[in-house]
C-alpha cells in the first residue's frame, strides 16, 4: 500500500511561486530582446528626427531597469529553492512571502512602465503612418 502525502499549503505556495519566478525571468528576457529590436528598428528615425530622441531615451532607461530587475529576480529565484525547502517556522515563511510579494509588485510596476513607453512609441508611429498616407 502506497501512502500519498499531501503537500502543505505553504509547500504549494512555494511551488507556485517558483513557477511564477521562471515566467518572470522569461518575460524579462523577452523584454530585453524586444527593446533591442525597437531601438534597432527606429535607429534611423531617431537620426532623421522623425522619432523623438526622448522615446529612445525612455527605451534605454527601461532597458537598464529591465536588466536590474532581471538580475534581482534571477538571484532571488536561484536562492529560492534553498530557502523554500529549508526547515523553518511560520514566521520565516511569512517573511519570505512578504519579500516575494514586494518583488511581484516591482515586477508588475516595471511591466506597466514598459507598456506605457511602448504605447507612446506605437502612438507616434501610427501618427507618422497616417501623416505619410495623407500626403
Query: What's the number of helices?
Result: 4
Q: What is the helix content?
A: over 70%
Mean pLDDT: 83
CATH topology: Four Helix Bundle (Hemerythrin (Met), subunit A)
In CATH terms, what is the architecture?
Up-down Bundle
Approximate strand percentage:
under 5%
The structural domain count equals: 1
**What ranges have pLDDT less than 50 throughout 5 or more consecutive residues?**
1-6
Structural class label = mainly alpha
Radius of gyration: 21 Å
Notes on the protein architecture:
By secondary structure, the chain is mainly alpha-helical. Helix content is 86%, strand content 0%. The protein has a single domain, classed as Four Helix Bundle (Hemerythrin (Met), subunit A), CATH 1.20.120. It has helices spanning 9-41, 43-47, 53-85, 90-134. Helix 1 (9-41) packs antiparallel against helix 3 and helix 3 (53-85) runs antiparallel to helix 4 (90-134).
Please sum up the structure shown.
The protein contains four helices and no strands.
Task: Give the SSE map.
Layout: H1 9-41, H2 43-47, H3 53-85, H4 90-134
